[in-house]
Amino acid sequence: MPNFALKVFMTHPIILESITHINHNVVRLITSKPDGYTFKPGQATNMAIDQPGQLSKKRPFTFTNLPNEDCLEFTIKIYPSHHGVTKQIETLTPGTELIIENPWGTIHYKGEGTFIAGGAGITPFIAILKDLRQKGQLQNNRLFFGSKTEKDIIYKMNLEAWLGTDFNVVLSDEKHDAYAQGYIDAALLTKHNIALNKPVYLCGPPNMMNAVKEDLYTLGLPDSQLVTEA
Fold first, then answer.
1. CB 44: neighbour CB atoms within 10 A?
2. Residue closest to 145 by CA, chosen among 124, 174, 121
3. Residue 57: which of 31, 26, 83, 79 has the closest Cα?
4. Which tens digits make up the pLDDT trace of 1-47?
5. Is the dihedral of CA 225, 226, 229, 230 positive or negative?
6. What is the CA radius of gyration of the chain?
7. Tens digit of each residue's pLDDT (9 = 90 or more) over 67-104
8. Distance between CA 90 and CA 20 in Å, rounded?
9. What one-character DSSP code corresponds to residue 102?
10. Residue 106 and residue 113: Cα distance in Å, rounded?
């Protein structure tokens, strides 16, 4: 008979220690960290609120702190129209009990290259960029970040400070003197001489990712150089 491997999702209780807004619709959660719990920069976990009716509404969230820290940090975009965790996150108070599972994810650093993010898709890259900054290895990495308006740019001041001229913002719904307007596409990437012989890290809304993938492959990026969520 064939052997079937069962994927076991172990759960871990954590406590919300603080919640703060970092812009109009994004919050930063600091929580306790289970003993022995570890992850790689770029990975995520499934989270649920430990309250009646909420445990079945788990959602994936990315760690945005470094693995060696004594707490866990999540940077979460609030979607009021969604039912489940994201709708409730903004109303949580310190002391709330949460449940997370083991870490998962295929996005991890494979060398100098180009990061392309759309909206909340920046979150897997935050921990990676923090880790590179701590190691003094940010040089020669570039970030293209697509947002609707300037106020939607997550971690704007940090990313500008970390990356300088290697931080490129594209706004779809607003004209701004400091940023390009439109979308991250083949024309924009060609204009900025994207390196197709180095890794390209991609994360964002499904429609954005599909369009950018098609453009990258058209430009000649080998599939082996694309780093995204499986």
1. 22
2. 121
3. 83
4. 344 444 456 899 999 999 999 999 999 999 999 999 999 999 999 99
5. negative
6. 18
7. 999 999 999 999 866 555 777 888 899 999 999 999 99
8. 9
9. -
10. 16
